[in-house]
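User: Hey, my collaborator sent me this sequence without any context and asked if I could get a structure. I don't really work with proteins. Can you help?
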Amino acid sequence: MNLDQLLNRRAGAFDFVGKWKEAVRALGESGMGYTVVRITLADGTIYPQVVICGGCLLRVRGIPNIPFTEDDIASIKQTDERWDWNERP
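Assistant: No problem. I've predicted the 3D structure and written it out in structure-token form, which is a compact way to encode the shape of the chain:
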């Protein structure tokens, strides 16, 4: 992974500035500088692989754009699953 890949934010990417800010800050790293998590939305939708880096939600596995906001999130759980930085949805 190089810096260009890491900083490749998808449309809809956002910084955690609301109720999840401290929870995201407390997460450990899955790799160098990033964390892989599972996100469950208030409507029950689950995104099993999401990458967060520096307090920013950058990418959702297999989806070209981030289809939710911080306010939609009901839970965040660190999974540390392997992330393929070359994936193109």
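In plain terms: The CA atoms of residues 14 and 57 lie 5 Å apart. You can pass these tokens on to your collaborator as they are.
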